[in-house]
Amino acid sequence: METxxxxxxxxxxxxxxxxxxxxxxxxxxxxVNGKVVKTADEKIDPESxxxxxxxxxxxxxxxxxxxxxKPKGILSASNDKSRKTVVDLVPENLKRQKLFPVGRLxxxxxxxxxxxxxxxxxxxxxxxxxxxxxxxxxxxxxALKEDLISEFKKGVxxxxxxxxxxxxxxxxxxxxxxxxxxxxxxxxxKRMFGVFDLGVNELHRYAIGDLTxxxxxxxxECLLMSAEDVEKTL
Length: 234
Ligand code: URA
Fold this sequence. Notes:
Layout: E1 4-5, H1 6-13, H2 18-26, E2 30-32, E3 35-36, E4 43-44, E5 51-53, E6 56-57, E7 65-70, E8 100-101, E9 110-116, H3 119-126, E10 134-140, H4 147-154, E11 168-173, E12 176-181, H5 188-194, E13 200-208, E14 211-212, E15 222-224, H6 227-232
Bound molecules: uracil (URA).
């Protein structure tokens, strides 16, 4: 495990500000394995250290799971030389080493994306064997015909011959659909509608499994997921 500055570790796992943490340290109220911490830049291995503030143990979760309401124009990647990525939107207090998005949303797609540092979890979600539904709202450039519902239910065959898993399509308005997919192929929604000569003007993902984007989470905002939230996506 990599070492990390004690003040950074504490601000990552608590909601105490960095300046407040420095004050605790100055007053000798922070200990690591029973020894008083002298300076805020002292490095520790958070996994094997017992950290206490005023005698209270501070737990360190190695893995974090963050939901982001992705805005348009942001890249689903960890880093990029010139363009802003979803990981750039993670606030300081939730930042960890090696964060990455679980799967991808296109640059112009909005909505729910999960960011984590847990490779095993990400693998479960994006594995082709995974049957977790991903729910999208698609606004199309033409009217939806009722017979698309059965076409999607059968499994759409894409232009290159790839067969998609059966998907559930609900027509919400003449050109707006709710689509639940059980696989995650590249540009899948756009390619599926493309088979029926429909272009996707807007695409928004609002749920992964039973985890829905909270109404209160504004575009560009992140929220730390609880263990229950994580469970809902599996
Ligand atoms: N399907 C798409 O076409 N684009 C996305 O961003 C997600 C699913």
